[in-house]
Amino acid sequence: MRRSFNFLRIATLVIIFTLISCDRDENTDSDDNKCNVTNPAEEIAWLKEAIDNVKQDVYSYYVMANYKGETVFYYGNCNPAANYSSIVQNCSGENLGDTNDLYYELTQITILWKHEESKCNFQE
């Protein structure tokens, strides 16, 4: 009887430690969470329009990132003479805030679009 009680106790501890040690994946679909599209730059209407508006600018680029488990986008410009402001937007195009204010909360930052002859020096 004592032997089965010890076994039950050990089994319970193993289960508890296993459950506690498992990483909780807050963003289980981070690779797939691209606004439920394959190519956001082409398939999200507001983003495609925004990119089309700067398509000729060799200093412009668009970034895709993760903000609090949500795919977001923002505009960038590497022209040293440019003075611009950038807004973080979600998949629906809603403004989430100024890029400078939210930048340190952004993860999985990747260049989504840049001009073919981009003048920007990205460390890829």
Mean pLDDT: 83
Q: Could you say how many structural domains there are in total?
A: 1
Number of strands: 5
Oligomeric state:
single chain
Q: What spatial order of strands do you see in the largest sheet?
A: 4-3-2-1-5
Task: Give me the number of helical elements.
Answer: 4
Distance from N terminus to C terminus (CA atoms, Å) equals 63 Å
Tell me, what's the shape? globular
Compact description:
The protein has 124 residues and is of the alpha+beta class. It has helices spanning 2-21, 40-43, 45-54, 99-102; strands at 60-67, 70-77, 87-90, 95-98, 106-114. A hairpin with a 2-residue loop joins strand 1 (60-67) and strand 2.
Secondary-structure blueprint of this entry?
Layout: H1 2-21, H2 40-43, H3 45-54, E1 60-67, E2 70-77, E3 87-90, E4 95-98, H4 99-102, E5 106-114
Antiparallel strand pairs: 1-2, 1-5, 2-3, 3-4
Explain what you see.
This protein has helices at residues 2-21, 40-43, 45-54, 99-102; strands spanning 60-67, 70-77, 87-90, 95-98, 106-114. By secondary structure, the protein is of the alpha+beta class. The protein has one domain (26-114). Strands 4-3-2-1-5 form a five-stranded antiparallel beta sheet. A hairpin with a 4-residue loop joins strand 3 (87-90) and strand 4. The N and C termini lie far apart (63 Å).
